[in-house]
Amino acid sequence: MELHAVPARIGHVRRIVSAQLRRWHLDALIEPVTLGVTELLANVHRHASPSKRCTVELCVLLGQLTVSVHDDDPRLPRIRTAGNWETCGRGLALIAALSESWGMRAEGGGKVVWFTLPALTAAPGEVRAVRSRWDSLPLDGGPARTPAEAAPRSGVRGARVG
Question: What are the protein's UniProt keywords (predicted)?
Fold first, then answer.
């Protein structure tokens, strides 16, 4: 899905992503994926220049969901430690905490930031395990994984949402 990352569009994108996950029978992933997409779009809105134009892509392959956001700004984001008093600066730490892996790469004059989650269609007990993992995320963002620790799988392509 191509869009301009402005606050007024983020709710609409969340609804589209939720509907696609339901279509794929991945209901248990709706909360962490929509939170991750919200954080990545907020980063595009806050930091990408000159354009806020971006593309959101979901791909399911071999039991893994990959969510990626591509924008036209070539500057790669940095993880930083936000102080307890700061109201922003935790987005990538949150992505690292909620995902199985994540990373970023330069691509086509811009960049792609992505994260993955296990995407096996689950039996009821397994759905509870995924939700339990989601519910136990640390509020402070927890330990962050570096892009080197979470290298993307090359050559993975999937369906565009939208």
Answer: Kinase, Serine/threonine-protein kinase, Transferase
